[in-house]
Cytochrome P450 (Oryza meridionalis), 183 residues
Amino acid sequence: MPLAPLLCSGGGGVQSLSRTLPHSSLRALAAGRPVVMLRLGWANTVVISTADAAREDSAFASRPRLTVPRRLLYGCTDIAFAPHGAYWRTARKASVLHLLCPARVQGYRAVREEEVGELLRLVEVAASGGVVRLSELLSVFAKDVAGQIVLGIRGGDLTSSVLGGLHLCLDLKRMEPYVPRVS
């Protein structure tokens, strides 16, 4: 499988992607090439840009079997990490029909409005002190909305620290091939 010409000409890897917007570089790279191999750090990465190419091999059509989600999420049986197949299609259909139907989404409106109000209050407080770390505030907002909808409780310190630690763990594990010291 040939290396991507765009990345090879600039030294290859992540450095070449960072010169422009990464998604623009990848889109230009995919033009006319259904399968391309990139080298990201020490890891060779295959980019499949067409559905026909992905159908050629079921390994490309499914999600990777990652260690952390497999251990923490009941063997990757949730909709985000389940391998593509009959189980995943059934789980997706159930999610759309029961969790994301218009009536259910409308029912969560009060929760969303309450949490947006809290987010705006937190932004206002943070802005009075100078720099606003919006990524942190949006993360707390997302956790609080999900916590209220799923569990009926606001995230709180314990939930935020547990979910934050899990989020960090998943991010570090995902970066392991590119930054060897993370492992």
Observations:
- The first strand starts at residue 35 and ends at 40.
- Confidence is low (pLDDT under 50) at residues 6-12.
- The first helix runs from residue 5 to 9.
